[in-house]
Amino acid sequence: MDFKQLRYFVAVYEEGHVGRAAERLSISQPALSQQIRQLEQNLDVSLFERSSKRLLPTLAAHTLYNHALPLLDGMQRAREALGNFKGQASRTLAIGVLQTVHTSLVPKMLERVRTAQPHLVVQIYELTGLEIERRLLNGSLDIGISYLPPRQPGLHGVLLYEDELTLVIPVDHPLREFKKVSMSQAAELPMLLLGEEFQIRQIWQGQLASLGRRPQVQAELNNMAGILDSLPHTRLATVLPGRSQREHGNKALLWKPLSEPRVPLKVGLVCRDVQRQQATLALLRNLLEDVINGPDGRLASPTVLDVQG
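== LysR family transcriptional regulator ==
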């Protein structure tokens, strides 16, 4: 077993699919499959149960994954430290981002980071909120961009901007003439929603639960863009952050504010150690300022939102 095989294994484990993992690693599928088989032979364990659609990790794979992440992270940091002796001051910044904020922030942020810090290599991972927090705690992520406050003890959040949950419907939906839609009205609507692993879905379910209601789920997709593409061909509704309309404007869809009550969302930078990451947090906030509010806008004050535990 070597670090290359570990890196290949982690990619397959996280993607659950050899084809996607091979694309992520920029190698061929046969070569990747061969490396995974060799790793299983060397360890004398089965790491994946193979099916027609995806690879299912075994208990041994879960164990290896939890040990592999800190090993790979340590090797990367060792290479960066040794690179400094050769005058190569480059370092890596691993950022986990929610799918529901990814499209509006990441593309523009990457070019600004490259200009401001040319020696900084940015690694972006699109993850669920719980996965972002788990990786922050085990050290495989440096920063998360997620909803606040963080749910895991030991994590801290710095507010970037505020948003609110918004109802999205097709233009021919029965509620098309409504300027706002109450929570009680929205609770009755058949929905096309993100899966239960997504934080927006959890926020929506929690809000309805406080009213003694449950979501009327008719269909699920694990991709926000797919939901927005599908809605115009249905009579279903969905709920998404209101700012998503800026990036996903579609004349076939209407975005209706929710009321009675509103559902505020706070989006921010999440990390384990505010002091250690202070420079990085300040850099990202500054670079994201005009992305979020335009050149003349202002970010929210850098309030730190902690979870006590």
